[in-house]
């Protein structure tokens, strides 16, 4: 390995088979929605400021997936190898874990330490089907960090998924050569495909909740699938009145409702089937623990999820709403890795209900225990819940879109929930290949 004008070159990085795979993958210094998804999940799950999908070329590294990257690198999506830790993952074909780069003999002189403030680093190899290491999925911290085994396991699992996506892209390129022969079969398969689409749509519609009538509550929901043709996906919404679950101080029945939104990891039919099971199990857990906190509902579901071998993974917000005798609403909720709900009070204030714990279906040691949160809301308040497809997507900043959503809800807070969800879905068009769920509840 040698350096010329701060550009590091290496013969191993120029292996023809590896370079051919990089070219066929079609990824470069431009944001790619799937690679962005993996980078963002690493940033969230490991709680790091920066996460990258880095593909290493003979003279530079490019970032088709990046979360938290500072300018100018956020725009250029590339650096020379003088600023690359990931090259060492490619050269060795093994993970690289660094607690403090300033003391590490392999990388302490790397310019990324000075220019990008890379202090702690954990990178996992991304390989193609032939074993070529194309790059790495990495987590970066600007402070020294002792990486926990659960964090490294989660990073390795995400890297395996990212590598699978790369292999699928390469396989699709090979499959293009077979397209001419498949075209000859298209006419005979068309009727079968159309029947499959019809069944998928009917299944999704059957899985979506039929909203109940709840005295004192007005609500509206919308669902937009990632695949407009098949109309199936893993996002859900639910409203479950717990009739007879609680009494007020006079012995009268209280209005108690459990509301949830969630997102199953995965897409299309498999995710939709899993979603239906998860939602039903959450309903059962909510009914059995009607007087308990939402965290107990999620914990009971997770025990069943693992016990029966469903092993579903995803995010959810579960909220318990109780109308008090004074007309106000007591709300308790738990957030399992999901975008935060928003509340608009009658005086027009709109705020995010921040704070979330680990996703469901992941190792318990990855993030600390989930905590219930509580809030008292005056009658007339608007509660808005949604899935991440509403605010995340290609070429967008999730924080900026969330702030746009918050400001728009403040303007819309006084109108009917149907109009709220219709306006939001129209004014925040999807830019991702993900499902979208939106739910608005007026607490009357």
UniProtKB/TrEMBL annotation:
Domain spans labelled PPM-type phosphatase: 214-443
Coiled-coil residue spans: 168-195
Keywords: Coiled coil, Hydrolase
Entries under InterPro entries matching the protein: Bact_Sigma-Reg, GAF, GAF-like_dom_sf, PPM-type-like_dom_sf, PPM-type_phosphatase-like_dom
Domain GAF positions: 30-176
UniProt name for this protein: Serine phosphatase RsbU (Regulator of sigma subunit)
Native organism: Actinomycetospora straminea
């Amino acid at each position: 390995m040698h350096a010329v004008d701060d550009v590091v070159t290496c013969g191993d990085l120029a292996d023809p088979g590896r370079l051919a795979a990089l070219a066929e993958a079609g990824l470069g210094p431009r944001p790619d929605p799937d690679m962005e998804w993996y980078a963002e999940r690493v940033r969230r799950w490991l709680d790091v400021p920066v996460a990258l999908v880095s593909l290493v070329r003979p003279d530079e590294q490019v970032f088709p997936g990046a979360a938290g990257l500072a300018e100018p690198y956020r725009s250029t999506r590339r650096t020379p190898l003088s600023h690359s830790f990931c090259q060492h993952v490619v050269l060795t074909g093994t993970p690289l874990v660094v607690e403090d780069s300033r003391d590490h003999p392999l990388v302490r002189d790397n310019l990324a330490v000075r220019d990008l403030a890379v202090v702690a680093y954990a990178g996992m190899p991304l390989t193609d089907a032939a074993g070529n290491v194309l790059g790495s999925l990495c987590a970066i911290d600007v402070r020294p960090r002792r990486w926990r085994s659960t964090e490294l396991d989660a990073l390795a699992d995400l890297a395996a998924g990212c590598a699978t996506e790369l292999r699928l892209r390469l396989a699709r390129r090979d499959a293009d050569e077979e397209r001419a022969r498949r075209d000859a079969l298209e006419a005979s398969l068309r009727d079968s495909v159309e029947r499959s689409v019809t069944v998928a749509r009917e299944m999704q519609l059957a899985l979506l909740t039929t909203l109940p009538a709840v005295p004192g509550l007005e609500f509206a929901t919308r669902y937009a699938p990632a695949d407009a043709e098949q109309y199936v996906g893993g996002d859900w919404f639910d409203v479950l009145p717990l009739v007879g679950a609680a009494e007020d101080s006079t012995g009268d029945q209280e209005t108690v409702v459990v509301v949830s939104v969630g997102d199953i990891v995965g897409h299309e039919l498999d995710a939709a089937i899993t979603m239906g099971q998860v939602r039903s199990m959450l309903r059962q857990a909510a009914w059995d623990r009607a007087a308990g906190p939402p965290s107990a509902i999620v914990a009971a579901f997770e025990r069943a999820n693992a016990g029966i071998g469903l092993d579903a993974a995803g995010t959810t917000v579960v909220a318990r709403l109780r109308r008090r005798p004074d007309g106000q609403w007591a709300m308790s909720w738990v957030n399992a890795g999901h975008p935060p709900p928003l509340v608009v009070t009658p005086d027009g204030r709109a705020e995010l209900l921040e704070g979330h714990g680990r996703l469901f279906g992941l190792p318990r040691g990855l993030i600390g225990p989930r905590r219930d949160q509580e809030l008292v809301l005056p009658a007339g308040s608007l509660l808005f819940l949604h899935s991440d497809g509403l605010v995340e997507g290609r070429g967008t900043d999730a924080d900026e879109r969330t702030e746009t959503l918050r400001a728009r809800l403040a303007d819309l807070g006084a109108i009917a929930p149907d109009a709220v969800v219709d306006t939001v879905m129209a004014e925040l068009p999807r830019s991702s290949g993900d499902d979208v769920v939106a739910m608005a509840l007026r607490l009357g």
